[in-house]
Hints:
Blueprint: E1 18-19, E2 26-27, E3 32-35, E4 38-41, H1 42-49, H2 63-88, H3 91-95, H4 98-104
Antiparallel strand pairs: 1-2, 3-4
Amino acid sequence: xxxxxxxxxxxxxxxxxxxxxQCRQFFCRECVTxxxxxxLCAGCLTRLTVPAAAAPGSFGWxxxxxxxxxxxxxxxxxxxxxxxxxxxLPSEWHEGTLWQRLQSE
Length: 105
C-alpha cells in the first residue's frame, strides 16, 4: 500500500509523509524529525535521547547522598571557621567595651 494512502497517527486529517522505523507508525511532516540520519517520531526520539536509568549494581544512587553530606560538611566548616574567628577576638570586643579602651589610648 502506498504511503499516501495512510494518515498521520496524531493528525487524522493529514496524509502520512513518513513511517517511523522504531514504532512503525505513520506520521505527517510536522510530527517527524531527522535524527542521526533517520526520520523519527517525537515519542521515539524522546525515548532515544533520554539517558537510561542506572544499571543494577552501579553506584548512581550514591551521588545525591554524597553531595548532601559534602554540603553539610562545607556548611559545618564555614561555621567552625566563623566560631574560631569570634573566639580569637579579645574579650573586650565581646563585652562591647573595646571602643572605650581604644578611645582612652
